[in-house]
Amino acid sequence: MRAVLQRVTEASCKVDGEITGQIGAGFLVLLGIEDADTDEDLNWLANKIAGMRVFSDENGLMNKALADINGNILLISQFTLFAQTKKGNRPSFIRAAKPDKAIPMYEQMIKTLQTITGKKVATGIFGADMKISLLNDGPVTIVMDTRDKDNH
């Protein structure tokens, strides 16, 4: 599982001109799922997202987590995070999980994040052509990969 975590002051997702999810301060999370992902990966990543201390404290230091600022999450599925670009100029997405695996894991990530944070998670629509708007705060952008847990 890969996640691109962006600290935002606001973010939203539109599908066919309609807002499917929007948040104020918090995290925009782009989530990629691959066939090898497990429930252990999902739980590790969800806890990392919820506990990541990258919000400013009263001294301007990144010491606060999502709960400390009463922040929210906008979770967007994004299979292109598993693009392989080694050969040629057209990326391959062979490592990205197919919908029969990815959809249940995406839905479980929503539930897990909601359980951990105690708040509703805003979302896009899996597989849709989504238009994402965000105001990145900082900017602060963090990439996490469950295959590389020891380095995160």
Could you name the ranges where pLDDT drops below 50 across 5 or more consecutive residues? none
Number of helices: 2
Distance between the termini: 13 Å
What is the rounded Rg? 15 Å
* Net shape: globular
The count of strands amounts to 8
Kindly name the structural category.
Answer: alpha/beta
Task: Name the beta content range.
Answer: 35-45%
Biggest sheet: strands, sense, closure? 6 strands, mixed
Mean pLDDT value: 95
Helix content: 10-25%
Query: What is the string of SSEs from the N terminus onward?
Result: EEEHEEEHEE
Plain-language structure description:
- This protein has 152 residues and is α/β, with parallel strands linked by helices.
- 21% of the residues lie in helices and 37% in strands.
- The protein has 2 helices and 8 strands, in the order βββαβββαββ.
- It has helices spanning 39-51, 99-117; strands at 2-15, 18-23, 26-32, 55-56, 62-64, 72-77, 122-123, 130-145.
- The strands form 2 sheets. Strands 1, 2, 3, 6, 7 and 8 form a 6-stranded mixed β-sheet that branches.
- A hairpin with a 5-residue loop joins β4 and β5 (62-64).
- α1 (39-51) crosses α2.
- The longest helix is centred in the C-terminal third of the chain and has 19 residues, at 99-117.
- It is globular and about 45 Å long.
- The relative contact order is 0.29.
List the SSEs and their pairings.
Blueprint: E1 2-15, E2 18-23, E3 26-32, H1 39-51, E4 55-56, E5 62-64, E6 72-77, H2 99-117, E7 122-123, E8 130-145
Parallel strand pairs: 3-6, 6-7
Antiparallel strand pairs: 1-2, 1-3, 1-8, 4-5
Helix pairs in contact: 1-2
